[in-house]
Amino acid sequence: MKQSKLLMPTLRDIPAEAEVKSHQLLLKAGYIRPIAAGMFSYLPLAKRVLNKIETIIREEMDKIDANEMLVPEVLPAELWQRSGRYETYGPALYKFKNRQDRDFILGPTHEETFTQLIADEIKSYKKLPLTVYQIQAKFRDENRPRFGLLRTREFIMKDAYSFSADQEGLDEAFHNMEEAYTNIFDRLGLEYRAIVGDAGAMGGSDSKEFSAPAAAGEDTIAYSDATDYAANLEMAKDFYERRSATAEQLALEKISTPNEKTIDDVATLLDKPKNELVKTIMFVADEELVAVVTTGDFEVNEVKVQNYLHADSLVMAEEADVRKAVGAGFGSLGPVGLPEEVKLLVDERAADLANFAAGANEDGMHYVNINWNRDVDLLAENVSDFRTVREGDLAIDGKGKLQFTSGIEIGHIFKLGTRYSKTLGAQVLDNNGRQTDVIMGSYGIGVSRLLSAIAEQKADEDGLVWPASVAPFDIHIVPINMKDEDQARVAEQLETLLVAQGMEVLVDDRKERAGVKFADADLIGLPIRITVGKKADEDVVEVKVRASNTNIEMRVSEVVDSVSVLLNASEK
Is the pTM above the cut of 0.85? Predict the structure, then answer.
């Protein structure tokens, strides 16, 4: 293709709104353009990359016998009302009415849609297991779109769903999808980790995320420096062995703390380390007030709390509501004397303390020498891991210390179980002739954000660097001067030879200075650049490998074979 015919509006300056490298370069190199906050047009170069990513996905989905199909992006609200997510999904759900005043949504994900399809069409276990998928635009009204394609309101996603008659079928589908995802991300040339993740609003269990380490990543990955253990910070666990308190119980005492509102303040006043104190945080879980207690040196992990409660929603309680229920405001809360309607959850580290201090549920007052089951009834089933891990702590495997890194979530697989099939009536007759709920899995890949993930990992100070597997073109032929007969001849000859070998070729036929052409070539990041210059009359050109920035002079007769080798090497 001739570059003069390509819509590729490069920019000389970095737009002010672009905060991260991938956003800056995709704008500057003419891959994307914003239409509204969190919504982008994918220009020809980006669309070619997306096409190749989607081809790789389809090839790996074919290997596991997944069926590609397509369902509507606009969905009737009734379907989501039946599943319960219409109310619980949150403000990110786009809701609107049609001219008949019926409620509709823009699909952020499609568990309900595919479940209803299976409920209508599959009646026997003999038709299962079955895996279906689509590649489609999704919509989520993000409060703060940012980082280009990493957090948008409209994005392209591959979502897949497996349907099985038994747990073994689900386990097999989950395993197959995990292998497919590994193959996909390997072929894309990405560095990534498979980590323990949270299923979030989708529901389900056995969640695994695929995260690409990158400075722009909004997720924090906690990993062991000695083993393969890795998890999203929201789900990460540290190593802790429960122990019974052996200290002699001291007399409960209430003390005045009019100026001590934080754990640090109380620790200073009492001259105690924070791990011998507790903090109490109030949440509202599905309209129920919940008090969560951790040791003073840890933060409460909201995801762990929500998952433990199986709550559709969990938000921090308003101080006015807390004061009305408990009689005190933030900074003076504690487990002693909580009203019966307040559910008490205690982190295991805090549950093992004796003679500890906490707020007295009275403004400006604290208790010291609190002991569980003497001063506070503590149910064993309400004790669990409710804390956020800290960097440097021992990992759950007990063999390494936790380290943190930033990552971009690029894929997510999890077992849904019967969360949707039970609600939406997706049942089949089993081999005994009994009705049984279909068991589901859900599997997503953020297709459009892969452009940013690859850019974040591969780009250098000069521009984008695409792996050969997804590059918009394989070869960039750059004649210095198209008016030169020898250069024009060699450029045309090379284009013909390379295209005949099945390669995708972009020829810079523009009337621009050499410096401009080279800068643009580096910016758009094709794997191989062939410069046709002053030695064209000798049939000699310069071949540059973009990833390594190495240049090799060679004869035209050597180019085809050499470039094939170089392209294969750049895929690895």
Answer: yes
